[in-house]
Amino acid sequence: MKLDVRMFRYLSKESFRVLAAVELGMRNHELVPLPLIESLSKLKRGGSRKLIKNPCLKHKLVTHSSKDYDGYKLTYLGYDFLALNAFVNRRTVVSVGRKIGVGKESDIYLVRGRMDIQEDKTKDKKKQREEYEQNELLNEENKEEDVVPLILKLHRLGRISFQKVKLKRDYLKNRNSSSWIYLSRLSALKEYSYMKLLYERGFPVPRPVDVNRHSIVMELVNGYPLNQVKNIQHPHIVFHKMKELMIEIFNIGLIHCDFNEFNVMIDDKEDITLIDFPQMVSIHHPNAEVLFDRDVKNLLDFFNRRFKFIPDDEDVKGFCYKDLIKNYSENNVDLSNEIRQTGFTEEMEKELMENIDLDEKYDENEIENENENENQIENENEIENENENENENENENENENENENENENENENEK
Ligand code: ADP
Ligand code: MG
């Protein structure tokens, strides 16, 4: 899946209204019927009907199904474009460059944009209206001075397969296949909230710039993920920086849960930056001990394997959950207010974590460990996976028509 920016540029603001109407309709419809799209988009007669075919359907921004029930739903690309449009309107993104990473649960793009959001986020109505308006088309050669290179991360929960994201039965029943939209949105908002908290407390993490739907914009980190680095000059010092970082995060009550060579970037000076936060948990999580000690073990194994570095006993003394929790003083931090400032609620946190399989995440890293030399580039496999996934979604549709009708009724009652 590619973010075709030329195509983005060519989309009219009316096309975005149609996409936004499909998005809105998907809140309580598995497939959004055309009459509903027409009424939600508030376009002149026939406008939506035309635009849903071209460009939306033609360019795979939506899919159409008429098997048992006629309607449309957003694709990831359609959802990407809605988020991108919001960033463009806020001018946090002015141009999109190449894709630099394909994670298991994200796509990462190099973009250019502004660090400071141009708009008052508290004005909800205004914001919504502006998202529909495409004020400025993307311009690759934007030369304005405050424009800097940034990273756009598009979250993709449920892309590879829904089995990997443990979807609870009742959850699936309520949210249907649009749950990927919902979960990816929660994942992005969580990542943004935690990144902001860590950044504001002076931790070495990218500066968060903007969040919309399933996407975040953040500072570009100089350097490479540690897994791509064959040699470092001072393994001992780098190990200590990583250890201290884990401990400092622990001391504000948090565990990263995926603290490894894929999520630690290192620069020329061998300074480190931590990335990738959707799976973070509190030190009071029921599995906190296992999760923290696993990150520790992974770090030790990696330094041994890659740099032939084994720390002294003294170096790792007290570097485990049991000892750290003993010395942890509860009264020094309460993060909940800071985290919730972004609108990421406790309920959202709970819902997301019920659907992130922390063990699964670790297994995937182990598989990646074995293929360390392979570049993370888009390949045919990925496209195959995506197709599989589409089929899975199709099947889900078929199974859930009953459910769909229920939603229909609900909707009518509301009216
Ligand atoms: P995932 O959740 O899919 O693992 P990550 O946030 O770990 O996603 O990002 C995947 C890869 O993208 C990283 O390993 C890194 O190479 C690159 N990357 C992510 N964020 C940044 C950033 N802020 N600056 C530079 N590169 C980044
Ligand atoms: Mg990662």
Automatic annotation (TrEMBL):
<feature type="coiled-coil region">
    <location>
        <begin position="115"/>
        <end position="145"/>
    </location>
</feature>
<dbReference type="InterPro" id="IPR000687">
    <property type="entry name" value="RIO_kinase"/>
</dbReference>
<dbReference type="InterPro" id="IPR036388">
    <property type="entry name" value="WH-like_DNA-bd_sf"/>
</dbReference>
<feature type="region of interest" description="Disordered">
    <location>
        <begin position="359"/>
        <end position="415"/>
    </location>
</feature>
<keyword id="KW-0067">ATP-binding</keyword>
<keyword id="KW-0460">Magnesium</keyword>
<dbReference type="GO" id="GO:0046872">
    <property type="term" value="F:metal ion binding"/>
</dbReference>
<dbReference type="InterPro" id="IPR030484">
    <property type="entry name" value="Rio2"/>
</dbReference>
<dbReference type="InterPro" id="IPR011009">
    <property type="entry name" value="Kinase-like_dom_sf"/>
</dbReference>
<keyword id="KW-0479">Metal-binding</keyword>
<dbReference type="InterPro" id="IPR015285">
    <property type="entry name" value="RIO2_wHTH_N"/>
</dbReference>
<dbReference type="GO" id="GO:0004674">
    <property type="term" value="F:protein serine/threonine kinase activity"/>
</dbReference>
<dbReference type="GO" id="GO:0030490">
    <property type="term" value="P:maturation of SSU-rRNA"/>
</dbReference>
<dbReference type="Pfam" id="PF01163">
    <property type="entry name" value="RIO1"/>
</dbReference>
<keyword id="KW-0547">Nucleotide-binding</keyword>
<dbReference type="GO" id="GO:0030688">
    <property type="term" value="C:preribosome, small subunit precursor"/>
</dbReference>
<keyword id="KW-0175">Coiled coil</keyword>
<dbReference type="InterPro" id="IPR018934">
    <property type="entry name" value="RIO_dom"/>
</dbReference>
<feature type="domain" description="RIO kinase">
    <location>
        <begin position="65"/>
        <end position="321"/>
    </location>
</feature>
<protein>
    <recommendedName>
        <fullName>Serine/threonine-protein kinase RIO2</fullName>
        <ecNumber>2.7.11.1</ecNumber>
    </recommendedName>
</protein>
<dbReference type="GO" id="GO:0005829">
    <property type="term" value="C:cytosol"/>
</dbReference>
<dbReference type="Pfam" id="PF09202">
    <property type="entry name" value="Rio2_N"/>
</dbReference>
<comment type="similarity">
    <text>Belongs to the protein kinase superfamily. RIO-type Ser/Thr kinase family.</text>
</comment>
<keyword id="KW-0808">Transferase</keyword>
<dbReference type="GO" id="GO:0005634">
    <property type="term" value="C:nucleus"/>
</dbReference>
<keyword id="KW-0723">Serine/threonine-protein kinase</keyword>
<keyword id="KW-0418">Kinase</keyword>
<dbReference type="InterPro" id="IPR036390">
    <property type="entry name" value="WH_DNA-bd_sf"/>
</dbReference>
<dbReference type="GO" id="GO:0005524">
    <property type="term" value="F:ATP binding"/>
</dbReference>
